[in-house]
Each structure stands twice: as C-alpha cells, then as structure tokens.
Write a structure and sequence with these properties.
By secondary structure, the chain is mainly α. The protein is built from 16 helices and no strands.
C-alpha cells in the first residue's frame, strides 16, 4: 500500500524471496476430506498454491497460508479473535514489504502503471489455476458482478493508483501519514452505519497509532508537497476505507476468499493493463525493462504484498472487524521503515523507536480490548452457573 522510489540492487530480493520459498518448502500439509458448505465459509483466506494452502479446516478459521511465521494460526487453543488479530498484524508486515519490492521494480525500468498492472493482473493469473485445481467455481453471482467491479476498480485498485502517483507530487512520508488516516475514516463510517460499537479504548488506540506513525515518518522534515500530492494521499485513505467497509457486507463475506481476491485483482489489473497498452500504442512502444532484475521484485509484489497480505487482511477484517483490523494495520509503516533501513540503506532516525513503541502499544491495547470483549460473555455465563 505504501511505496518508495529508492533504487537498489537485485541481491536483497534474492534473500527475501529465498527465505519465503525455503519456509514454504519446509512444511508438510494435509488436506481435510470433509467439505464445508460454501455459504458457511466466510473466513477462508486466499491461496496461491494448492499443495500448501489446503489445510485442515476448523469452525473458527479455515485454510491458512502456511508461511513459516503462521503455524500457530492452526492452534485450536487460540480464539477466533486472537487469530484475527494475528492475521491483521501479519498482513501489515506483508504490506510493509511492498516499498522494498516496489523500489526494485522501478529500478528495473517498470513505471507506475506497469507495476500496478503486473501486481494485480499477475495475482489473478496465479489464482485462476489454483481455483481450477481445487475444482472450485470462480464465477460470481449475477447480482454481485457489477458491484464487485466497482469495488475492485474504484476502491481496491484506485488506492494503489492514488498512492503511487501521490509520491510524485508530495514527500513519501507525508503521503504515508495522510493515507493512514483511513482507520479513522473506517471508525467513523462504522460508527455512523452501526456496523461496530466503538469503545473509548478503540478511539484512543486509533489516535495513538496515528501519532506514533507521524513520529516515525516525521513529515515535517520533508518539503516539496503540492496540493495534488495531498489530495491524492487523502483520496487513497478514502478509497481504502470504502474497500474495508465493503469487506463487511454479507454478500462479500459469503464469498470464498480465493474467489474474492481473484476478482478484485482481475478487474483492477485489467483496467491498469489497458492503460499500459493504450500508452504503448500512443508512444509507439514501451521503454526498455531489465527483465532479469525485475522478476524477483515482481514476484515479491504479487506473492508477498498482494496475495498473502490481502488474504490475511481480509481474514482479520472478517474475524475482528474493520476498525480493529485497520488500527492493527498501522504496524505496516514500522515494517516498511525497518526494511528500508536494513535492505535499502535508508536513514533511521532516533525518534523511530518512540514512534514504534506508540504504534505497537496501541496494537496491544486494541488486541487486549477485543479479546476481553469476546471473553466477557463466557465469563458471565460461567458466573451464572456458580452455585
């Protein structure tokens, strides 16, 4: 969701992706034979490899992508809320990898529309065979097709368009801070529509996370912002907030997540690919691209920062709600800044630690609140049974 414009060499991509591939190949997985009706499967994550993603299902959480950091997601002793919180935080880490892979793609000669088109259309190309191998019908219900197109293009896809083009007209730090106002927008929308009840702790966690993010990014150190850049950054916050709210609609929740992410990516990628083709026709060709250097960043954009991250965010949204998932996603810039320092050699300011502590403390606070809210009925029931 965020993206930088720094240049880098191809070595970091090899290390990052080699770790992901090694972790995936080191695990054994089984497939549960008993099927669950489609209409009851409202929290199934997206998958990109049938062998790795067909995991045993439970009532609380169906198939989970078995990255090396996710084995605990299958633990039966974890509650639905705990798994949703973990999925939201891990999705933030996946999205936090996006700036690193995005910088590699740009250094290889891929411009903004190229990266958007490859990211989304490449995701659809990978997920379609997965659906066919699973013998799952990828078709959408007739009444949902046009609405899914609108959500995909004007919410899911336009968020990346606004962000990536916003970086051209305003400093990256300022764009990031403005974009991450979306949890506040989601919170207000949920409150206005009655989708979720907001507690004082939730509101405090949202503002503390935004304060911590501002301290981490330090937008006041960067100049050169324009009205266009500020507008694009705020527009990205609004479009992503609408995407988060759309995930809470019952007709969306009834979709298997593989089907959901496939169609979101297909519609968004098709429109972006259309812009790429039209531009190539008008300009009489495409600028040269260093394909060997672009392959690993492109795979990272598709596998880690789109399929994995979008799947986990959807799980978190369905299990703990849009407001909580959005607040927990503020861990994303912490990951992005750390990777920028470790991989891209960017400067790490001394205020980063203080801001990171604020963000992580807010994430901890909202997690504790959600777990206690879920556990309250169980405690009350246990109290009424006491003689």
């Amino acid at each position: 969701m965020t993206g930088n414009t720094s240049t880098t060499t191809s070595a970091p991509w090899e290390a990052l992706l080699a770790g992901c591939v090694a972790g995936l190949g080191s695990r054994k997985h089984v497939c549960r034979q008993k099927s669950i009706p489609q209409e009851d499967d409202v929290s199934s994550p997206s998958v990109f490899c049938t062998e790795f993603f067909l995991l045993p299902r439970t009532e609380e959480l169906p198939r989970i992508p078995p990255f090396p950091i996710l084995p605990f997601m299958r633990a039966h002793h974890l509650t639905r809320t705990a798994k949703g919180i973990a999925a939201s935080i891990l999705s933030a880490i996946g999205f936090g990898l996006l700036p690193t892979f995005n910088a590699g793609g740009e250094a290889a000669g891929l411009d903004t529309w190229d990266r958007i088109a490859i990211r989304f259309f490449g995701t659809a190309v990978i997920l379609l065979p997965v659906l066919l191998l699973r013998k799952q019908d990828p078709r959408l219900p007739k009444g949902l097709r046009f609405r899914m197109f609108l959500v995909a293009v004007f919410a899911f896809g336009m968020t990346s368009v606004f962000l990536f083009f916003g970086y051209k007209y305003a400093p990256t730090g300022l764009v990031t801070v403005l974009h991450f106002n979306y949890p506040l927008i989601v919170m207000l929308m949920c409150s206005a529509t009655g989708t979720e009840k907001l507690s004082p702790s939730t509101v405090a966690a949202a503002f503390a996370s935004l304060l911590g993010l501002t301290i981490i990014i330090e937008p006041w150190h960067a100049g050169g912002a324009t009205i266009q850049g500020i507008f694009l950054a705020l527009a990205s916050a609004v479009t992503f907030a609408f995407y988060v709210m759309s995930l809470n609609r019952q007709e969306i929740k009834r979709l298997d997540n593989t089907v959901l992410i496939f169609w979101l990516s297909f519609f968004s990628g098709s429109v972006a690919l259309g812009f790429v083709v039209i531009r190539a026709v008008i300009e009489g060709g495409h600028p040269p691209v260093d394909i060997p250097s672009a392959m690993l960043p492109v795979l990272g954009l598709i596998v880690c920062s789109t399929i994995g991250a979008a799947s986990l965010f959807s799980i978190g949204n369905r299990l703990v709600g849009g407001t909580t998932a959005s607040i927990l996603s503020m861990c994303e810039p912490v990951t992005a800044v750390l990777l920028g320092w470790l991989v891209l050699g960017e400067q790490l300011r001394t205020t980063f630690l203080f801001g990171a502590v604020l963000v992580l403390a807010s994430a901890t606070m909202i997690s504790v609140v959600r777990i206690r809210e879920q556990d309250r009925p169980r405690r009350q029931s246990a109290a009424t049974r006491k003689p």
